[in-house]
Amino acid sequence: MRAAQARRHGVHAAGEPGLQGGPSPVVTAIAYLYPWDVVGDPAAAERIAALGVDAVALAAAYHSVRAATPFHPEHRVVDAHHAALYLPVRDAAWSGSRLTPGTPGWMPRPDSFLAARDALRAVGLPVHAWTVLTHNTRLGRAHPDLAVRNAFGDPYPYALCPASAEVRAYCTTLVREVLALGAPDGLVLEACGPLGLGHGGHHEKTDGADWDASADRLLSWCFCGACVARYEAAGLDPSSLRHQVRQDVDGATPLPPALMSAVRTIRTTLTADLRREVLAAASGLITLHASADPWATGPFATIADAAAPPPVDTLVASAWTSADQGAANLTALRPLAAPTTRLAAYVPALPPRPADPSVLAAEWSACLAAGADELHLYHAGLASPARLTALRTALDAVRTRPEV
């Protein structure tokens, strides 16, 4: 009954956040999908509903990707070769902005989010608009002054830098347009902060440099014009900082703790600025991909600033690497969340995970034991038939598990 109510209202019906003891709480599960997983496949919505999930996070604005479509009756691979908005791009909304979303020419219609949304709602599934903010290679290449640039001067065109007011305005307009045109049952925000060195692009060849976590962090610090202005406003000398970062990356003297602390404040503040402006433009049920790591970059942006807990309904922690990573991330997020904010674990059902429901259920149970109220399942459109079966079986298993 509670799961059915959750589907009808697009809300989470499980027990209080972090509640343990007593009967095992209802586990809310949200499957992630792309519009092309549904559009043109009459069987898709029922197939997703049969998994037993409570809602779908459907991409409304997403970065480039080459995606398998193992079930689709018309194709097996979609090449979404640039970031795009899967809703109409209205000239009036973007007038005067250098940053305008791309349109997906690989889709048969400009409002494929709506077509997929309606098909999923028709089988009782609420649809949350999965919206990626600062990850956009198309715009970063077109406007390199707005992209992250490391201490060596190397640009990261996939990474729009939110230190720039233009980038923050783009993100807030994007959120307003997704809500106005997409009318979703909720909003899922990814990359609500800067990206860094890590990208995971089609031809990434950086692993062999053997940069450790410290070097990765330093190579993620940005020296674009807007970030340089922030360093200067904080009383730092950008040229000296750039030199010290280069030396540290290459194995010379580490940066002094006081300097690290100053940069940490600048970095967490620029992320908080973006988050504040985006959330002011948002409404309804809001889910935020987040990290407690003050140096975090990428899909799960840091919330480790001195501000109040983010006013969102759910914070999603990454469990991409392992259940241990997920448990650690969930544990670290809880003190930064409001008491009423739910926690979710972002768990993949794709390689290198096996298509084995016992392995998936064990990982998911560990995340639930660590405080997750929800499981965000990546990815119901990319998964093979065997993986979807494993996902469904694992979800059944964790919902009938003994109390954690």
Automatic annotation (TrEMBL):
Lineage of origin: Bacteria, Bacillati, Actinomycetota, Actinomycetes, Kitasatosporales
Name by which UniProt lists this protein: Putative alanine-rich protein
